[in-house]
Write a structure and sequence with these properties.
- The protein is 57% helix and 13% strand.
- The chain is α+β, with helices and mostly antiparallel strands.
- Strands 1-2-3 form a 3-stranded antiparallel sheet, covered by helices on one side.
Length: 133
């Protein structure tokens, strides 16, 4: 049947439903954005010399350095900061993927893109079929 030959009320109802679905997706995207902006990834070095916190994009938010860290050689401390920051970035990325999975579904293109970005940024494989959350 030709789409334009249908009852106008049916067509209007269909358009209204599509608009409502689009508004729901937009609201889910806004909610997800707010949740992702609140994400903080944290990691502590194996011997607890320092703790690093990053935001969802991996930017450094805080570094807590213990007195024990000051006993390390500068080169070792620098390496430890980089390694601990990378672990914090993985943590933040996994949290962001979990937020996106809840909002859009684990198989959504948004989650796939986040997963690929996280894998590229951290040099890890978060697993294509994995769903967090």
């Amino acid at each position: 049947m030709d789409e334009f030959a249908e009852d106008p009320d049916v067509l209007i109802a269909r358009v209204q439903e599509q608009v409502a679905q689009a508004q729901e997706r937009a609201q889910a995207a806004q909610q997800m954005r707010a949740e992702v902006e609140a994400v903080r990834g944290t990691a502590t070095s194996p011997r607890r010399e320092l703790t690093v916190t990053v935001d969802a994009s991996g930017r450094l938010v805080n570094v807590d350095v213990s007195d024990a860290a000051l006993d390390l050689r500068a080169k070792d401390l620098g390496r430890l900061i980089v390694e601990t920051a990378a672990a914090a970035q993985r943590d933040a990325g996994e949290q962001a993927m979990a937020v996106a999975s809840r909002a859009f579904g684990a198989d959504s293109p948004v989650v796939s893109r986040l997963r690929a970005e996280l894998d590229a940024r951290t040099g890890t494989d978060t697993g294509e079929g994995r769903a967090d959350g």
